[in-house]
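Troubleshooting: if your tokenizer reports a length mismatch, compare your output against this known-good record of 130 residues.
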Amino acid sequence: MQEAFLHAYKALDRFLPDQAFGAWLHRIVANAALDITRRRKVRDADELPETVASPFRDPAEGNELRQRLQDALAKLPERQRSVIVLHDVEGFKHSEIGQLLGIPEGTARSDLHYARSQLRGILGPVRRDL
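Known-good structure output:
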């Protein structure tokens, strides 16, 4: 709560008098709670012990899967390939991808959806082989 009220205090100059104050404050509190949850998830992931057992994987299998993924990505239209790499590999948000590629945020979302759908279709046989 303290963090949320601190955010609200800092954002007070951006409050528009024609808005409902309660709704504005509620959105700030909700966003602060989401931020804390995200940070906690990252912190929990960082605290994994060094000796976590991982299932044995044949190194050749990893290279084969990597090659299949690269081949599947190459079959996507260039913009969809860019969007999926920027989002799923690089971790950019939809709005950031839109700015980088000069497309609307909604188009970035749509391209990501269709790129994932096409990859599922292309890689479907790979998933059954595992």
